[in-house]
Amino acid sequence: METPDSTADLFTLLINAPSASADNFEAAAPMLDVVFAQASDPGKIRTNNEDAMGSFIPNSRHQARSHGYLFAVADGVGGMDLGEVASATAVSVLVEEFEKAQSGAMLISLLPRLVQFANAAVHDRTLAPEFRGKKMATTVVACALRHDQAIVSHVGDSRCYLVRGGVAKQITQDHTWVNEQRKMGLVTADEAATSDSRHVLIRSLGPEMFVSPDTIALTVRPADVLVLCSDGLHDEMPEKTIAAIVSQNKSVDEIAHELVMRGVEIDGNDNTTAQVIRVRSVEQVGMYRGRPYRLPG
């Protein structure tokens, strides 16, 4: 289990090679296999880093199938008292509760419930004696993977991108005032991207007792790359640039560092964080009465 911090880390998530044991069929079955790296930088202006990142990595083939993987990025809201406390709390709760979840739980319903738990935890921190009277809030984007499915749940303007075949696609939609205007046709996409109000959130974790995350389900393929990031990265970096960096023949560690360094180079006015998840193989499954079953190879 990875706890949130502001340093760059590399995790190579490999399942041990199958052994010729009694459970030969199970051992030989294809598995979800990913490699993962993350990086974060406070930027050119801020002295502290209010971004947080964390992950849950299964410790066995069985746990990979019963729970899967979880990755999360949170961005403490600037201008409030304790953004770093809010983001660290949200990520910590997500990771801990994911690990404790019931074996085989449906990720499409589990993940938004865990985001709700994280929201309640951030909200409750403001009631603690040491934080009484202070305000805190954070964005969050979380991605859970199991078999050949990725479930993404988010609140705020931290994003998830899917890079496939050299093209980046934004999976999440920012919960911002200007993005709502864009969806209603009141401003163009270009106007929204450069608006002074583009960082005004209409949804975040912490201010209210309840929050409504958006949740998306994806079928992933080998060679797909998922990028979770804070707005310090995506704010000035177009999708073509993200796709070009991610599609290089480099390690995920180098790619995560390059994404963050490029984001700081372009702007650097905010904390900048990225998690890079490269899918190497998947386990194709179907669903029957809520339970997965292996599809023929």
Tell me the name of the CATH class: Alpha Beta
Mean pLDDT: 86
Q: What is the radius of gyration?
A: 19 Å
Structural class: alpha+beta
User: What is the CATH T-level topology?
Assistant: Phosphatase 2c, domain 1
Query: Which residue ranges are poorly predicted, with pLDDT under 50 across at least 5 consecutive positions?
Result: 1-27
Shape: globular
CATH superfamily: PPM-type phosphatase domain
Based on DSSP secondary structure assignment, what is the total number of beta strands? 13
Strand order of the largest sheet: 1-2-11-10-7-8
Helix % is: 25-40%
Sketch the major β-sheet. Answer: 6 strands, antiparallel
Q: Which second-level CATH architecture applies?
A: 4-Layer Sandwich
